[in-house]
Specification:
This protein is of the alpha/beta class and 252 residues long. The chain contains ten helices and twelve strands. The longest helix is centred in the N-terminal third of the chain and has 11 residues. The chain is globular.
């Protein structure tokens, strides 16, 4: 059995780590380089670094900050935000990223998933999906940092992305983001059980039990969180010990 992964997420705005609730009301959470080094020391399995304003403000992810973060850690590191082309990916990989996360640009130009997979390998391509459950009970894809609703259902887009060459799905429930009320188990389970690639659950982790639930009930491969780690509401070593006691495969 592959070990379940715990992944802190650093949302970056203007060079600082920030955190909000339901994608708004951002507050400062610290220096990303210091946070990254601290998480690597605590035993985080990977890191995700998202420049949350890159797509909206039409600017590239800051390669220099990526380089500084990469030099402080010894664990896999995914970078996203404003990535549109294979050239963008090359810059990030050359500055120390192990994988890249692509969201709106992939939806607008699905062929870019295949282009990146063919150039860097599918294992480098993490498709980020921001999804929201609407009144009809269906989960829909949102773009531009959760600002733009589409009529595409989450599972349909995820399945297509797999066919195009995505190697991993980063699934964020907008309904649950920042609420600390638990992950979206239903949509996470649907993707985890029906796709041949790993699914990272994101949005809603507030207690250690929530992480156990998303692994045991929704069969996620990894769980991502931000504020509970940034503000030390949950410490990664204690979380991993808790999960191990529940007979989950965890790297200590």
């Amino acid at each position: 059995m592959l070990a379940k992964r715990i992944i802190p997420c650093l949302d970056i705005k203007d060079g600082r780590t920030v955190k909000g609730t339901n994608f708004v009301n951002l507050r400062d959470a610290g220096d990303p380089v210091e946070l990254a080094a601290n998480y690597a020391q605590q035993g985080a399995d990977e890191l995700v670094f998202l420049d949350i304003t890159a797509t909206v403000e039409r600017r590239k992810t800051l390669a220099e900050l990526v380089k500084r973060v990469a030099h402080t850690i010894n664990i896999p590191f995914t970078v996203g935000g404003g990535i549109k082309t294979v050239d963008d990916v090359s810059v990030l990989l050359n500055n120390g990223a192990d994988k890249i996360s692509i969201n709106t640009a992939a939806y607008n130009n699905p062929d870019v998933i295949t282009d990146i997979a063919n150039t860097a390998g599918s294992q480098c391509v993490v498709l980020a999906i921001d999804t929201k459950k609407e009144e009809d009970g269906e989960w829909y894809v949102y773009l531009h940092g959760g600002r733009t609703k589409t009529e595409t259902k989450c599972f349909d887009w995820a399945k297509r992305a797999v066919d195009l060459g995505a190697g991993e799905i980063l699934l964020t429930s907008m309904n649950h983001d920042g609420t600390k009320a638990g992950f979206a188990l239903d949509i996470t389970k649907q993707l985890s059980e029906n796709l041949p690639i790993p699914v990272i659950a994101s949005g809603g982790g507030g207690k250690m039990e929530h992480f156990a639930d998303v692994f045991l009930q929704a069969h996620a491969d990894a769980a991502l969180a931000a504020s509970v780690f940034h503000f030390k509401e949950i410490e990664i070593p204690e979380l991993k010990h808790f999960l191990q006691q529940r007979n989950l495969a965890i790297r200590i």
